[in-house]
Amino acid sequence: MGCFHSKTTNLHSPEDDPDHADKPDHETNGEAGDQDQVPAFKEYGLAELRAATKGFSPDLIVSESGEKAPNVVYRGKLDGGRLVAVKRFSKQSWPDAQQFVAEAAGVGKVRHKRLVNLIGCCAEDDERLLVAEFMPNDTLSKHLFHWDKQPLPWAMRVRVAYYIAQALDHYNTENRRIYHDLNSYRVLFDEDGDPRLSSFGLMKNSRDGKSYSTNLAYTPPEFLRTGRVIPESVIYSYGTVLLDLLSGKHIPPSHALDLIRGKNMLMIMDSSLEGQYANDDATNFVELASKCLQFEARDRPNSKFLLSALAPLQTQKEIPSHALMGITKTEQVLPVMLSPLGKACARMDLTAVHDILLKTGYKDEEGAENELSFQEWTQQVQEMLNTKKFGDIAFRDKDFKSAIDYYSKLVMMMSVPSATVFARRSLSYLMNGQPELALRDAMQAQVCMPEWPTAFYLQALALSKLGMEKDAQDMLNDGAALEVKKQSSWRG
C-alpha cells in the first residue's frame, strides 16, 4: 500500500532545519526513507476505493471526531496491501468534481514527516473521496481523554506540541497557512508513535469553506464575528490543543484564561502529570497557550515563535515516542512482491482472479503426478475427463454453481488430488458467497502443492472475506515470499 517515490515530496534539507543538529537518532535516521515510502498523489477509481473499504463498511469507520455522515473516515486496504484512511464527502459538499480534484491535488503536493500525507482522491459519480496514509496508533484525543493503560507523559505532550508546530510551520513555508478546525482529533500517531497532523485539515469541508464543526466555545473569536478563517485562527485553535495537552480534558479557552490570569496554574494541569515537569517548564507552556488564545488575532504568535518557545522544553529526546507512550511499535509489513494474482487477491477483485486462473489453466501442475495424465485409458478415466471438461466449461462461463458441482464430483473420482481443481472450486465458492468453504479448498490446494503461491493468495482472499485481516496479510506475505523464492531459483 507497493510504495513509490513521491514526485511531490518537498522536504527541508538538514541545513535548512535549525533544530536538525540537536535531533536524536530516532528522529533523523531514515527521514528521506520515510518519505520514499509515501506514494505519489494520484486519482483513484471508485471501484478500487469501494473494494478497499469493503463497500464503505460501517465496521471500518475510524473517525473519532464525532462528525456525522457524509464526512466519515474509513480504514481501507489498497491493491498490494497498503493501509489507507479514506475520507468520504458528499457530492453536495463539492458539486464540481474538477474543483474538488484540483483542491485535493494542491494539498497532495504538501509533504512532510510531521504530516499524515494525502496520497490521492476520487471524484467519480456522486462520490468525493480523499485518500491519506493510515496512522495505526489512534488520535491525540484518544490518548488524552480515553486512555486505557497510562496517561500521556509530560515529555510526550511537549513533543506533540513541538511536532505539530513543525507541521504548521511547514504549511506556512508552502504558502498553505489556512488549516481548518485544528483540534486533538486531527493529531494522529504513526507506527513509531510519532504525532502527525492530518492533511485532511488543509482541505475545506466544502467548496464554501465551512470550517468549524467543534463546540462554539473553542472557535476563534474572529470566525464567530465574520465567518472567515485567517492564519491567526489556526494559532488560536493550536492554543486549544495546548490546553488539551496541559489539562488532559476539554477546558473552554475563556475559562482557562480566567484561571491563568488568576495565577491558578495548578487548576489547569492534569493531576496525573504530578512530579513529571519542572514548574518553570509548565509555566512557560501555560503562557504560550495564553498567547495563542488572545482575543485579538494580531496579538497571537506565529509558528516560528511557537518553535522557539517549545524547543527548550523538549526533554528525553533520546527516547523514541512509542517507548514514551508505552505502546508496542507497529510496522506495516508490505509484501516483498505480489504477482498479478496476488494483487487481485489483495484488492479482493474476484473477476480478475477468475481471469488469471483461466489463463493459467493447469500448467502449474505440469510435472506433478496427476491422475489426469498418468492413468490407463478406461471408462472410469473417460468419465473423469468429461467431468473435468464440464467443470472447466462452467468455470470459464462463470456458472460457478455448476462448476462447484462438477469439481466436487471430480475430487471424489481422483485418487491424486489436483491443486488447480481445488483452486478453481475455492474461487467458485467465493463467487457463491461461501468464504469458509473457499478457505478450506485453498488450504487443500496448499496440501497438494505446499509451495504454490496461488494457494496462499486464495487463502488470503478468503480470510479477507471472513474479516480476518491480519491472517490475510500474513498469507499475502507468505505468497509473495514464495514468488521471490521461485524467481531466485529460476535465476540460479
UniProtKB/TrEMBL annotation:
Endoplasmic reticulum keyword on record: no
Question: Per the UniProt record, which EC number(s) apply here?
Answer: 2.7.11.1
Output one GO BP term.
Answer: brassinosteroid mediated signaling pathway
Q: Mind telling me which GO cellular component terms the entry cites?
A: plasma membrane
Domain of life, per UniProt, equals Eukaryota
Residues in coiled coil: none
Stored Pfam families = PK_Tyr_Ser-Thr, TPR_BSK1_C
Classify the main location: membrane
A GO term, aspect molecular function: ATP binding
Stated membrane topology is:
Lipid-anchor
**Bias-annotated ranges (Basic and acidic residues):** 20-29
* Span list, region Disordered: 1-38
Q: Where is the composition biased (Polar residues)?
A: 1-12
Ribonucleoprotein in keyword set: no
Matching entries from PANTHER family are given as: SERINE/THREONINE-PROTEIN KINASE BSK5, SERINE_THREONINE-PROTEIN KINASE BSK2
Identify this protein by name: non-specific serine/threonine protein kinase
Please tell me the species this chain comes from. Musa acuminata subsp. malaccensis
Taxonomy of origin reads: Eukaryota, Viridiplantae, Streptophyta, Embryophyta, Tracheophyta
